[in-house]
Amino acid sequence: MFIIKQHLMAKSIEEGYEVLIKNRNNMILGGTAFLKLGNKNINTGIDLSNLDLDYIKEDENNIEIGPMTTFRNIETNELLKRNFDGIIAKSVEEIVGIQLRSIVTAGATVASKYGFSDFITALLSLDAYIELYKGGIISLEEYLAEEKVPKDILVRIIIKKVRKKATFKTMRNSKSDYALLNCGVSKLNGEYRVAIGARPGRALVKIIKEKDLIENNEMNKKIDEIVDEMKFGTNMRASGEYRKMVAKVLVRRSIEELR
Ligand SMILES: Cc1cc2nc3c(=O)[nH]c(=O)nc-3n(C[C@H](O)[C@H](O)[C@H](O)COP(=O)(O)OP(=O)(O)OC[C@H]3O[C@@H](n4cnc5c(N)ncnc54)[C@H](O)[C@@H]3O)c2cc1C
Fold first, then answer.
1. Ligand 1 site-directed mutation target among 8, 21, 34, most atoms within 8 Å of CB
2. Ligand 1: centre distance to CA 104 (Å)
3. Is residue 3 left, alpha or beta, with left meaning phi > 0 and alpha meaning psi from -120 to 50?
4. How many structural domains is the chain composed of?
5. Distance 42 CA to ligand 1 centre (A)
């Protein structure tokens, strides 16, 4: 269990950020479900609950998700069910149980770049961006590629409404366990954007062109080539070799579905 010496109910994101950077043991609090699994000694826990950051909204071009939005709200949100073939809502619906999903937050998950995350993989298969209070707006792909987790506050997740056709799949050893592999694929203008996570490392993305799959009827060969470029590791859930095999199957099924 973690220890929090002081609790700050931030009055603005700016105040939260100023306190965050004052001490290396000051931390932003999301739903704190993940923090409670560890034994961190937190100097000041910065609570963003009063800043109206729990929202899912759209404008003409984007859907935006506030960092304090819970997975339960994401799972049940009509806007997210209607867009991107519902994969954002679908990506969280198998995570443990409703009670946990009613606590855990979107911002904490994405900011922390968890390798096992189902939500991140689904986002990465779309055109997704994040906004950091200091770091500004960057693509999720760029954010994940940077090894370090920055000392910053994720203030917004932005998904461009361009990729309408998408699918999301996971493989679990048992219900409510972490995925041993997850895969999100979207299709736009003859290209598939393929994201694979729980490798068990952070999700990665690759582009596969429809024309390369059609040529010489070489779909399986092309998918094998793309997946072989990715690294898969071994942990208690599965070996790297098994993960690679599962990845090839999930990518092929996803592409067939999108066709
Ligand atoms: C028992 C259990 C099982 C789980 N199983 C799965 C699973 O199968 N699949 C899956 O995808 N996920 C799973 N998760 C992870 C879960 O989905 C969340 O990703 C995780 O709990 C983090 O959300 P939180 O709100 O609890 O974060 P917290 O514990 O509050 O915070 C986690 C980290 O994020 C930082 N943080 C919080 N908010 C922000 C912000 N706005 N900006 C910057 N940093 C921030 C915190 O400082 C902390 O370092 C599981 C979690 C638990 C506890």
1. 34
2. 6
3. beta
4. 3
5. 16
Residue 24 domain boundaries: 3-46
Instruction: Give the model confidence (pLDDT) of 62-105 as tens digits.
Output: 999 999 999 999 999 999 999 999 999 999 999 999 999 999 99
- In whole numbers, what is the pLDDT of the chain averaged over residues? 96
Nearest CA owner, ligand 1 atom 32? 108
Give the alpha-carbon dihedral of 125, 128, 132, 137, to 10 degrees.
Answer: 130
CA–centroid distance, 62 to ligand 1, in Å, is 24
The verdict on residue 51 lying in a domain is no
Classify the C-alpha dihedral 251-252-254-259 as positive or negative.
positive
Q: Are 179 and 172 in contact (CB under 8 A)?
A: yes
Residues 154 and 72 in one domain: yes
Going by pLDDT thresholds of 50, 70 and 90, the confidence category of residue 216 is low
